[in-house]
Amino acid sequence: MTDHRKLLRSIFDAAVAAAHPDGILDAYLPRAPKGRVVCLAAGKSAAAMAAAAERHYLDAAGLDPARLTGVAATRHGHGVPTRRIEVIEAGHPVPDEASLRGADLSLRLARTATADDLLLVLLSGGGSANWIAPADGVSFAQKQHVNRALLRSGAPIGEVNTVRRHLSRIKGGRLARAGRRAAIVTLAISDVPRDEPAAIASGPTVPDPTTLADARALVAKYNLALDDAVTRALNDPANESCKAGDAAFARARFEIVARPKTSLAATIRIARDAGYEVLDLGADLEGEARDVAADHAKLALQARADGRTLAILSGGELTVTVRGNGRGGPNQEYALSLVSQLKNTPGISALAADTDGADGGAGNASDPAGAVIDAATFAAMRAQKLDPAAYLANNDATAFFAATGDLLLTGPTLTNVNDIRVILVDAV
After folding, report:
1. Which pLDDT belongs to residue 152?
2. Pairing relation of β-strands 348-354 and 370-373?
3. Whole-structure pTM value
4. In which band, very low, low, confident or very high, does the pLDDT at 216 lie, cut at 50, 70 and 90?
5. What CATH code would you report for 21-133+168-207+242-258?
6. Three-state DSSP state, 286
7. CA 121 from chain center: how many Å?
8. If you write DSSP's letter for every residue of 340-364 in order, what string do you get?
9. Homologous superfamily of the 4-13+261-425 domain (CATH)
10. How far apart are the C-alpha atoms of 230 and 136, rounded to whole Å?
């Protein structure tokens, strides 16, 4: 008899392993330059990527430690020991004072890089919040307010980053401009749909295809109430991001080392090996979490009615429009919507989780990665007389799954290739 919870967790773990720096980064690291390796890292995987780079250059390549320097800004709780590269733990999803320090040190180090140096930039999801350098005239508090408003608006991450890039001195190619004398190699773990370089950590070393006008249009679209200083910054031509052809990119190279599609492929192998037919919905799904869940529930219910043994797999990054005052993230809300839609149908189990180990939450290392549902979930719900629709209306998925005992608690995984969602349907 299949242990569905064990299988769901093994599928999730396979997705994480396929994108972990320890197994992937070494093959992409360039040869040591004549001068220094200046390593600047940002995101949830930043410290792990920096440690992997240290092992490569110091141990495998035998680089003189004096020729390696750098700083890695990562989410609180995601730090790992390093030897030469300073690790700064910073806020996510809402930046904090450490985010300012990480960005400031990175910009200063980039400006010291010479023509003989390698500026090695290691990016992963979360870098946008871990590196904060507000545009001139915009205070840190005002930038935080913009960030919170965007996160609560339900805007897709690409739109969120469009606004962020135009209120920054490091994003939108500006880090490359600061370090333009050096050869720049950026290695990125993608956490964005379609792996768009400008969207990963808000594209600090690549041209930005969006404009100030785009950012202003998004502010209007979501009816965001912004401080006057932010409005002025979005109307100031000096805050336009770097475009293709800028001299900052003359010696710059960008490469993705892990992507959602690769992790989704790893989950497909596990599901097939377990005897499931696979319905692959793709690695780039976007949309409101509860709406996507409703669509997926229909697929699962139809498969159940047809007597199929089916695994429905998807990646991407869903969003939540916050209307209540509860706790939870897109994966938990997706799972809670599934509970509401499935109505105790036997033979269906599911997992929805963020590969970084934290789904929404308060920015703590102990935040849940997502949630698991199966027959035990429905039994607990009935025993406690829990109404999933009421919890959903209050955006309070964390409380619901804490009550049923179904929160997925993994701790920091030290990578981030977005969400993994699995629905297992068993034939009668």
Report:
1. 84
2. antiparallel
3. 0.90
4. very high
5. 3.40.50.10180
6. coil
7. 17
8. HHHTT-TTEEEEEEETTS--STTS-
9. MOFRL domain (3.40.1480.10)
10. 10
